[in-house]
Amino acid sequence: MADLTELKNAIRIGTVQSVNEKAMTARVKFKDKGGIVSGDLHIIKRPVYVLPAMESGLEAQTAQTKLKYDYNGELLKEISHKHDAFISAWVPSVNDMVLCIMLPDGDGDGFIIGEV
Asked: Which CATH class is domain 1-46+91-116?
C-alpha cells in the first residue's frame, strides 16, 4: 500500500511554463517541490473545446444548433441557428494551474489531467 509521501509525489498541482501544441506536451513548475520544472508532460486528450471564432483568432468552422421552444411538452417552435466557431482540442496556456499525475518510475514522466 502506498504511503502519503508516494501519493504526494504522484499527484501534483503546478503552473504551466511552456506548451508544445503539436506534440501535445507541456512543462510545469511545481512550487511545492522547490520550484523545479518538469520535463515534457503529456496532455491527456479530452473532448473538443468550442469557442466563438472571433475569440480564437483562427479560421472558423460552421457549427449548427437547433433551438426548441416548448410549453409543457408541446413543441411550439423549432429554429435552426448557425454561427462561426472554432473547434479544437483543449491545451493549457502558460500560467494555467494544472493537475498532474506523475509516474513513480523516477524519470519525471507524467500527464497533465486538466486545469484546476
From this structure: mainly beta
